[in-house]
Structure formats: C-alpha cells, structure tokens
Fold these 3 entries.
Entry 1:
Amino acid sequence: MAIEFSEEIQALRTTMENIIAVVQPDNLRVQIEELSEKAAAPDLWDDPARAQEVTSELSHRQSELDRVTTMSERIDDLEAMVEMAGEDPDEAELLLEEAEGDLAALKKDISDLEIRTLLDGEYDERNAVITIRSGAGGVDAADFAEILLRMYLRWAERHGYPTKVMDTSYAEEAGLKSATFEVQAPYAYGTLSVEAGTHRLVRISPFDNQGRRQTSFAAVEVIPLIESTDHIEIPEHELKVDVFRSSGPGGQSVNTTDSAVRMTHIPTGIVVSMQDEKSQIQNRAAALRVLQSRLLVLRHEEEQAKKKELAGDVKASWGDQMRSYVLQPYQMVKDLRTEFESGNPQNVFDGDIDGFINAGIRWRKNQAAES
C-alpha cells in the first residue's frame, strides 16, 4: 500500500512541477507586489473604475498563487501522513483510509489546476464578453436563452468572479431575445471560449397547453474584452449610432432619457447594443469597446482561416451544435464534441459546468495538436 501511495504522490509532484513551470509563481509574486503598491496609492479611488480593476486583478493573482502554493503543501501533508502510517501500525489503517480520501481530492484539484496550463492562446488571459441569443423554437428558445444566462452567471458566482450584465433584450411572452454580459477574471476568455456554439434543449414545453415535447436552440458567442493596447481603430464614417430609452421586461421604462445606444459597424454589419450604464456617453464607450472586441476576433479568425487555406486544411474544428440538454424522455446533458455528459441537468443549469468546460479545453488542445 505504501509503495502504491509513493508512486501516486510522485505522479502528483511531476504534474505540479509542470503546472509551476507554466504558472511561474515567482512572476506572480512580482505582479502581486506591483499591484499591491498601486492598490495602496492614496489617489487610487479618484478613478473608481481603475481602482476596481486594480483591486480585482490583485485579488485574482493572489488567489492563483495561493492555489499553487496550497496544492504543493497538500502533497507534502499527504506524504507525511503515509509515512506516519508506516511508523505507527496501530494507527496505520485509519491514517491510510484518510490518505486515500485526500489522494482522491488532490487528483481532482490538481487536474482542475492543470487546465490552467492549457490556456495559452493569444487572448486567453482576457476578461470575457458573452452574448446569448435565442434561436429556433419560439418562446421556448427565448426561455432557454434566459436559462443559459442564469447558468453562466451562477457558474461565475460559484468561482467568485464578478459579472456585469451589459445589455438585455426581452422577448414578448417570456425569456430573452439576447443578453450580453462580462465575466471579469484572469483567463475568463480562454476558459469560457469553449462554450461558444449552438446549444439545444429538449423538454416538455411549459408554454404548450397540450404538453408536447419541444426542441429549441440558443447561440452562445464568447469574445475577449478589448484592451487599450490592441489598436483597433474604427473610422467614424463606418459607424451608425442610434440612441433609445432603456427598458425592462414588458417594456417598462427604467430610464427617462435616451441613454441606451445601438452601434452598427457598417462594413461588417455587426451590431452592439448597450444600456447598462446611466449615461449615453458611458453606453457609447462600452458599446465601442465590445464592437472593437468583436472586430478583433473577426480579424483573428480571418487570419487563422487564411493560414488554414494556405496549409490546405479544410477540416471544421467546431460543429454547429455543440451541446444537448435533454429533459424528456430522459435526463441528460451531453457535449457532442467531447462526449462529456451529466445525468443531472438541474445541477448543470445551476452552474455546475466545470466538467464540461475542462473537457472542452482538453478537447480543443488535442484538436490543435492534431491539425
């Protein structure tokens, strides 16, 4: 038994060495020290938005360092427990039983931490902007879009990631036509980008008085948030800007001025709406930032498509429909790319989607390695 534990512990140490090589704790400590100095500046809160950005980044960097440090300490504690079991025959059975439980928990936590090392894309470290749009399926699709919005917000809440709903367009009967929100966390884009695609729901429709089964669809778009260093310039003549009053469900006015902004990029037809901020100027700035983010992704996709064309690669890496949520005639959520599945849709809708995300990240990495 002790030999088996020794082999398992050595395997965990090897994995942790690989993780540490990528995460670079020493660099994290330097970043934390620099951010701590900024956070201590007496004039920090003169600019509340900048202050929030600094304190949030400091919190996340410290949390990342703590995760790596704590994981290494847990491996040391496990090894010490196994050694104690070998030295104390009377307590050996109890100690080894406890060690087995700790080993299983460590394997899972280190596997989750290892996912972080796979996020090495150009924009993976950015905050994420997610847009959910209802698709085919009428009112059920609009309701499904609202269910997905709640799912992602609950997922972020579970991890302690701040979110900000930037725009919502309500459907007439129930649910949402579309919603856009931001997730503020290191590697939010790299993590959530595997959620992009078409999601499918099969259930007995609560909106059908005959209780028939209904299939509906919703599309999820994930983009990295633009940064000032990205230099995406948009000439003024390429923009069409409309202003209107913000509104809530049922058309109820939540703003008495024309503060909401709809921005259209004429060459591409991309449209961004923003109504979260209190002034038209703020909404215009937020809409422009999201539009720049989408154009950045579009430019990146065009570059990648050109590279594939030159390389003669015509394989599609993502299918149109990537995940099914089936509530009737059986209970199952299944990702069609990774084959990862859950038999508890309610837990998934409550934000328990880490298994799907982690499987998606590993799948994406394998696809990239094969292409």
Note: The chain is about 50% helix and 20% strand.
Entry 2:
Amino acid sequence: MAEESDLEKTEPASPRRIEQAREEGQVPQSRELSTFFITMTGVATLWLLGDWMADRLFGLLRRSFAFEREMAFDHVLMLDGFNTLLSGALLTMMPLFLTLLVAAVASPIALGGLVFSPKALGPNFGRMNPLQGLARMFSVHGLAEMVKAILKSLLVGGVSAIVLWVNKDHLFDLMVEPLEVGMPDFADTVAFAALMITTSLGLLALMDVPFQLWQYHKKLRMTKEEVKREGKEQEGDPQVKGRIRAMQREMARRRMMSEVPKADVVVTNPTHFSVALKYDASRMAAPIVVAKGRGDLALKIREIARENKVAMLEAPPLARALYAHCELEQAVPATLFTAVAEVMAYVYQLNNWVAEGGLPPQPPAELPVPEGLDPGAPEE
C-alpha cells in the first residue's frame, strides 16, 4: 500500500516542475477567455470607431459605383481604381485588425504569462496518431470541452433569442423608417446585441478559467517519489556529496603532504601533533604553515619529513598552539613570532652544522608560548 501511495500523483507541482513545463510550452490556456478577449475588443473598437469606419466605407462604396468612361477602355486605370478602393478599405479596417491581433496575443499572456518555447514549435507526430486522437475525444478533457461547447451554444443562442424577442417590435418598425434613420437605429440594436452576447461569453470565461487552472495544476502533480528525487537533485545526493567531500579532503591532504619535503622544520608534540613550517626571507614576511595534522596524519607528516631529511623539533606547547591557531598557507600569528623565530634560528644553526661540522646546536627549551594559545596547557 505504501508503494502504491508513493506512485500516485498527490503532491502539488514544485516550482521547478512548473518551470520545466513552461520551457516545453505547457501553460494554462482557456479558449473561452481568448474568445471573450477578442470579441470584446472587436465590439469595443466598433463602438468607438464604428461611425468613422462606416463613413469611410460608405464613401468608398459610392466611389466604386462611380464609373468613368476612360476606365472602360484602359485596364490600367481600372486596376488603379480597384487598388485605390481596396487599399482604402484595408486602411479603414486596419484599426479593427490591429486591436484584434493585440487581443489574440494578450489573452494567452493574461492567463499563462509570456512564454517562448522552441520545443513547442517542433513537430509532434504523436498528435497525428488517430488512436491518440480518439482517446483525447473520449477523455475527460474531451467530455469537458463538449459540455462547454454545448453550454456556449445554449448561452449565446439564448441571449440572442432574448435580445431579438425583446426588440422584435422595434425591428419591425425599422422596415418603415427612412434609410437615413433606420440604418443608425439598426446599428445601435446590433451593437446592443453584440454587447449582451459578449457579456455572456465573459460569464462563460469566468467559469472556464478556474477549471483550466485546476486541470493544468492537476496534470503537473507529482508523486512523492518524484518530489524526493527532485529534492535530491537540487540539494545533491548526500552519498554523492559525502564522496565528493572525501575526495576533496584526500586531494587537499595529498597536496599538503607534497609540501612537507619543502618545509624547513616540523614542530611535533611528540606523537599527537605535527606542524611543518617554511620561511623564505626574500618572499615571505613571516614563516608560513605548509602542513599540519594530528593523530595518524601527524605521524605521516613526521614520516615524510624523516624520509626527506627535514629538521624536526619536539616542542609540545608550540606544536599545539600552531595547530590550533594557524591555517594552511598562512603566516604564523604575531603572538607566536618570538617562539617561531627561536625555532628558525635553531634550524639555521642545524643546517650550518650539517654543512660545516663542529659542535651540534642545542635545541631551544621552553619556547615562549603566550598564555591562552596552548589548548593543551593545564588549567591553573
């Protein structure tokens, strides 16, 4: 039962899942909202610019009935006249075309936002499969679309019938009115009917938009397993991250060990801590820590130092202080300068003794480590 519940899509879509769907061109869409936007825009444009457009079109119509004798014998003049009338008609209708185009583009953006997906433009041969087409027709979505189409037909037809029934006497009166009076009166009646039909389409859009949003988010629902997998992908698999950290630590350890042969001295404690120091007066303002470790790592540092004949000095308080307060590739703190300076002086004396012979230098005793810097010092 637990496995079945993990496979059921019961979890809401994550932001990443929604973003992936948008990249594939999947956004909520409502045909009813688009129809309402376009219809309302067309009605509003005709309401505002209808008189101007009608006057220009009537003027073009009158010009089209005017026939000059020269045009009958010259097809060039006839074509020029036709082009003039056609361009005039197109320019007159251009405001309507432009507003409808803007409405057609703005209606999907209002619901799903602005999305450009190259994937959605690619061919989808699966949609050409007749079996899938039949499956979509008889699916829940197809049934819902059929119900909406029937409801739209009933709503628009019902509103139209009501408008015609209410204005039936007025429509009959138009037949006896003069043309100059009847045409504007008829235009007002048509505009009122269009407004009522558009309003009914708006009510249908108000019902369709929540349904489309619900269906869109239902389609993008995820199983619990998908949510877990996505969380791992975003945060990183703990096992993979652990292996990466282990590899990084190993690489850092190897890099640190490669610096031990270049060190001037290794300060030890004598078994728990080891800190390798290097100093180049021409390039460094103070000695730097090139390697440090405790436990097995400290033993490994001492082993490499012995193999490469690097000087070692047993100074437990200083070793503990350097390990606790110094970072790799960083200079020793000023509070430990005095103690480290004595160590470096001993190293130089030791190198001279190895090169020239004589009496071996005595290692420094009781190096001055300020109080509070040695984490292993006994409490008073």
Note: Residues 127 and 202 are 31 Å apart (CA to CA).
Entry 3:
Amino acid sequence: MAEESDLEKTEAPSPRRLEQAREEGQVPQSRELSTFLVTMTGAASLWMMGDWMATRMLALVRHAFAFEREVAFDHVLMLDALRGQLEGALFMLTPLFVVLLVAAVAAPILLGGLVFAPKALGPNFGRLNPMQGIGRMFSLHGLVEMVKAILKSLLVGGVAAAVLWNNKDHLFDLMVEPLEVGMPDFANTVAFAALLIVSSLGLLALIDVPFQLWQYHSKLRMTKDEVRRESKEQEGDPQIKGRIRAMQREMARRRMMAQVPKADVVVTNPTHFAVALKYDADRMGAPVVVAKGRGELALKIREIAGESDVPLLEAPPLARALYAHCELDAAIPAALYTAVAEVMAYVYQLDAWAAGGGLPPQVPTNLPVPEDMDPGSPDE
C-alpha cells in the first residue's frame, strides 16, 4: 500500500516543476477567456467608434459609386481608384485591428503570464499519432470541451435570438431611413447587439478560467517519490554535501592558520585552548582574534606560533574566555579589555627587551577575567 501511495500523484506541483512547465511552454490557457476579451474589445470599440466608422464608410461608398465615365474605361485609373478605396478602408479599420491585437495578446498573459519558451517551437511528432488523437477526443478534456461548445452555442444563440427579436421593428425601420441617418444608426445597433451577445461569453469565461487552472495544476501534480527525488537533486547527495562541508572547514582552517604568524601573541591554557590575538592601533579599535582552537588544533596553533617567533602566554582563564566568547576576525568583548591590555603591554615589553636587552619583562599573572566569562574549571 505504501508503494502504491508513493506512485499516486497526490502532491501539489513544486515551484521547480511549475518553472520547468513554463520553460516548455505549458501554461494555463482558457479559450473562453481569450474569445471573450477579443470579442468584447471588438464590440466595445465598435460601440465607441461606430459613428466615426459609419461616417467613413458612407464617404467610401459615395466615393466608390461617384466616379467619372472615363475612369470606367481606363484600367489604370480604375486601379488607382480601387487602391484609394482600399487605403481608406484600411485606415478606417486600423484602430479596430490594433485594439483586437492587443486584446489577443493580453488574454493569455492575464492567465499564464508572459512566457518565452523556445522548446515549445520545436517539432512534436507525438501529436501526429492517431491513437493519441483519438484518446484526446474521448478524454475528460474532450468531454468538457464538447459540453462547453454546446453551452456556448445555446447561450450565444439564445441571446442573439432575443436581441434580434427585441430589435426587429427597429431593423425594419432602418430600411426606410435616409442613408446619412441609417448608416450610423445601423452601426450603433450592431455594436449594441454585439455587446449584449458578447456579455454572455463572460459567464462561460468565469466558469472556464477556474476549471483550466485546476486542470493545469492537476496535470502537474507529483508523486511522493518525485518530490523526494527533486528535493534530493536540489539539496544534493548527503555524502557529497558532507564532503563539501569538510573541504570548506579545511579551507577555513588553513586560512586561519595562515594568520597565526601575523599574530602579536597566542594565549594558551596551556594544553586545551589556544587563541591568537592581533592589534593594530591605526586600524583597529580593539584587539582581534585571528585564530583559535581546542585540542589538536590548539597544539597546531602553538606549534606554528613557536616556529614564527610569536610569543606564547599561559593564561588559562583568559584563554578559555577568549575561546568561548570571541569569533574569528572579531574584536574581543569589552569585559576582557583590561586583561588583554595587560597581555599586549607584556608583548610590547618583550619586543623592547628583545631589541635593547636588559632585564626581561615580568610575565603577567592573575589577569582580571570576570567569573561569568570563564566557562571552564581552573584545572583545564
């Protein structure tokens, strides 16, 4: 039962799965939404520009039937007249074509967003398989499309019949109106009827859009095994991740060890802890921890310090406090300023003694380390 549940697509698609689908050109699409927006935009444009278009159309018709006799017998002049009529018609229809183009492009973007998928442009010979085509015809999607087509026909046809029936007297009156009055009136009537008919498509769009979104996400649902594989691919193999972390730690340790020869002093426990300090009065407000370690790492720090002639100072409480409360490349806490100041003073005295001779400086003892800063016992 567990294996069967792992193979069932019960999990919502992951962001990566959705992104892959978009890269392949798979986005939610609604034909009803596109049809509604395009036709509604066209009807609204006719409604707003109906008078202007009717006036232009009337002028074109008049100009077409009012030409001189010699034009009818000269094919060159006839072609010029035809070209002029076509240019006038194109100029009249250009605003309508522009708004329809914008609506046709905006409809898919509203639902699926702007997508550029070169993979979708490649040939897909699987669509030529007749068996798959028959399967799509008798699938749930095909059944839904058939039901939508029937509903669309009934709804649009019913609304169109109702509009025509209610405006039948007005349509008959157009036959007796003068051309100057009848053309704008006819254009407004057609635009108003188109708006009513197209409004019925909005109901289908309201039903189809949620269904298409649900169907789109249902097709992309994943099995639990797919979710685990994707998570593993994104996070990486645990063994590889462990090796990467180990390499990162080793690189960080090497960088830290490279800073030990540049330190001013190494404070030790003497065997458990080692902390290397550096202070530059011109660039630092307080001494900075450049290296720290415990156990074998502390032994390695002391070894490098000895090879580099970096002074070693045995101060167990201070070493434990510095190790516990200081981060690498960070300044020491204010509570340890006094103790570290005595250490740095001792280092400067060592440098002066090494350069000028005389009596060696006295090693500082009983450094003032607050009890709450020392995490260890005195015998560590």
Note: The longest helix spans residues 179-219.
